[in-house]
Amino acid sequence: MVGNSHPPPPPVTLQDALAEIRRLQTKVASIESRKADKEVENEDDEIIDSQP
Fold first, then answer.
1. What does residue 4 show for φ and ψ, rounded to 5 degrees?
2. In-domain check, residue 21
């Protein structure tokens, strides 16, 4: 590209890709755990609301 003074990014290694996959798997697991906790709280609230 004309006028592009940035060097090309370094090549991604298999090790880098695996590290990123592990990081994302950890992030997804954390999000799913929080979502499950929130669903349990909502169920508890529904039970309390339905009590006479």
1. -90, 110
2. yes
